[in-house]
Amino acid sequence: MPYRRFLVANATGGIVWAFGTASCLRGRALRPRSICRNFSWIALVVAVLFGIATSLFLRRRAAAATRREADEDATTPTSPPTTR
After folding, report:
1. 3-class DSSP string for 8-53
2. What's the first-to-final CA gap in the chain, in angstroms?
3. CA angle 82–83–84, rounded 5-degree value
4. What does the alpha-carbon distance between residue 76 and residue 4 come to, in Å, rounded to a whole number?
5. pTM, rounded to two decimals
6. CA pair distance 7, 36, nearest whole angstrom
7. CA quadruple 59, 63, 68, 72: dihedral positive or negative?
8. Where do the domains of the chain lie?
9. C-beta separation of 28 from 34 below 8 A
């Protein structure tokens, strides 16, 4: 994975996590019975769904790349074997 792509994904995840945690803690301090009580379950469900979607996307993309490679190999003319 290119470093810039990793950096953007890592920074985005860190920012989302920090804001979610901070807002949940702030909500608990102000109102104990808020959505924060269910925040961990909501976050878990979102993370699992995101993971499944990402896995399916990457698997489909890898299969397409493999098919493209196979098609290129099939259409590339091969040179006849050399005899001595």
Report:
1. HHHHHHHHHHHHHHHHHHHHHHHCCCCHHHHHHHHHHHHHHHHHHH
2. 46
3. 125
4. 35
5. 0.46
6. 28
7. positive
8. 3-74
9. yes
The percentage of residues in the chain with a pLDDT greater than 70, rounded to a whole number, is 70
20 burial (CB, 10 Å; 0-12 / 13-18 / 19+) is middle
Residues 27 and 34 sit within 8 Å (Cβ to Cβ) = yes
Between CA 74 and CA 79 the distance in angstroms is 13
Q: Average the pLDDT over 9-24 and give the result.
A: 85
CA 39, 40, 41: angle at the middle one, nearest 5?
Answer: 90
Binned at pLDDT 50, 70 and 90, residue 8 comes out as: very high
